[in-house]
TrEMBL record:
Pfam families, alphabetized: Peripla_BP_6 (PF13458)
Keywords: Amino-acid transport, Signal, Transport
Residues of the signal peptide: 1-23
InterPro entries, alphabetized: BCAA_transport, Leu-bd, Peripla_BP_I
Name of the protein: ABC transporter substrate-binding protein
Lineage: Bacteria, Pseudomonadati, Pseudomonadota, Alphaproteobacteria, Hyphomicrobiales
Domain Leucine-binding protein, residue spans: 27-365
Domain of life of the native organism: Bacteria
Organism, scientific name: Bradyrhizobium barranii
Gene3D superfamilies for the chain: 3.40.50.2300
Family matches, as PANTHER family: LEUCINE-SPECIFIC-BINDING PROTEIN (PTHR30483), PERIPLASMIC BINDING PROTEIN OF ABC TRANSPORTER FOR NATURAL AMINO ACIDS (PTHR30483:SF6)
Record family assignment: Belongs to the leucine-binding protein family.
Amino acid sequence: MNSKFLHKLCILASMMVAAPGFAQDAVKIGILNDQSGPFASYQGIGSVVAAKMAVEDYGGKAAGKPVEVVAADHQNKTDIGIGIARRWYENDGVDAIFDIPNSSIALAVAGMSAEKNKVFVGSGAGTVLLTGEKCTPNTVHWTYDTYAYGRGLGKAIVQQGGKKWFFITADYAFGHDLEKQAAEAVKASGGEVLGSVRHPLGTADYASFLLQAQASGANVVGFANAGDDTITSMKRAAEFGLTKDHKLVGLILGMNGLPSLGLKFAQGAQIMNPFYWDLNDGTRAFAKRFAERIPSKAYPNDMQAGVYASVIHYLKAVDKVGGAKDGKAVVTAMKEMPTDDPLFGKGYIRKDGRKIHPLYLLQVKAPEESNSAWDLLKVVATIKGEDAFRAESEGKCPLTTQ
């Protein structure tokens, strides 16, 4: 074997070793969510569009490198979700994962992100465990959580006379957590919980669950589920005639589901949310741009807005650190900088990773109040972020004692 051939082999070998580095010569963001199941219209392609808009609005680069967005469907299966995250982190050079509706998958990815020293920003996940006992120095929880929604609505409805509750709950971590938070708020406000029942994710038959709710003696049925499950279960409840004698409360009644549910059935329902497209000029301008880019022409919800805002703040932190490879350092920078964007306004990220911003108590309009397809809600009250989210001292996050 001559020396020239050996030299060529050495060059080829070095190129093969270096190839992953070439693939990683960018800041890579992964959007991991449900793109084919019950949460697809609530995050899905909309979250991908929001992330790409954020990258474009930021200028397309961070720390001098181009920013790329990749996406995948976790199919609401933990093994698939964690498998995608592992491949992204170990083989594809992804630096941060955003969104992840489905709290079981979110908790697993949060743990892996800490293990691999990457970044996880939960804008679609709800479980309060992400900023509690399962918090990590690599996690930020951006948009909402089960404490803020469950506690806020539980208290508000009891104050309006809805004191006897029955819960229809999705049987996974998110649903259990949401029911727990709402039930504790109901009891603390002077109400009582008469019972609950749990249903599988994506079920279509709610008959037996609704019959139990009717027989319980409750005057409020709380739906501790999300996405299409909330819409389907509330539709079935209306068909069963529960609206005559019961107040139906969708604890995560997303805006995107209201056209399907219909204002006739949903009017008067109240929801908690940190974002609504018609709040101000900034939210309206974003919603118009978003709707022009998404195939369904739908307006953005809070979780999609959360992807946009959190990607912007993440890229600011990457610039501050000078790179994206040290996930813990990037999250530390995210916490050190105040947040400020046109969708959520001014805010901050606590030591436990909880993003703090105001929440709004919104009420579904009556059909005659609505002037367009997405003119669905009106603001009833504004709640300070410090009052809406669980106090940091109550979360048992290890980071708060360091």
